Description:
By secondary structure, this protein is an alpha/beta fold.
Amino acid sequence: MSAPLLKVSNLNVHYGPAQALSSISFELGATKSVAVLGSNGSGKSTLARVLSGLVMPTSGTIEVEGRNLTNKQGHVWRRAGIVHLPEGRGVFRGLSVIDNLRMGLAAEKDIDKSAAIDHAVELFPVLGQRRRQLAGTLSGGEQQMLSLARALMVQPKIVVADEMSLGLAPQLVDVVFDGLRRALDSGVSIIMIEQFAARALDFADDALILKRGSLAWSGPASRVGDELVRSYLGEGAVPV
């Protein structure tokens, strides 16, 4: 068997005396996706921040392609091919679509920036059609698409998507999941922190369910039934 793209082993995180994550372990393969589910306060966003170098773990190890990135700064993670899409849309609302794409490449070296923008527009043609439109006038789903396009321009290995559908109308959630599917089909692995459990489980290969900072369940996403979702996420997580 080939080595996993990402390997997380016995990860612990504290905020002062409070333990936010306890003994988290999982693996992610190349061109695979994992859905991270849990109620508010379960540690989902903390895990996302740790997996992009924004929060340092207390103990445990994180390896990407066999390289230990534990306690490395965020720029090291980015160079290793991990891009974090934080909660919120993360676009420059007063800039045009094309200028947002250019801003996403401002710090990049040794990259053909014109080709990178062409790649983004190829993945999301609507952005090419609206290249001169201000990002702030796009729909919420289109803003998330722009955020994802900026991430994919640098051809990352892993995208950590934190609540990309938060606050969106149902039809715009479809736009977000379509964008994530295009990312997956282009060869990117995805760690998805998501509030829409059913959609996330339908999308992902594997699932992690967090409860109070601990790993309550892990396994193939197809094995997570309504009863398990209700047990850990509550009645409201299961669509009627």
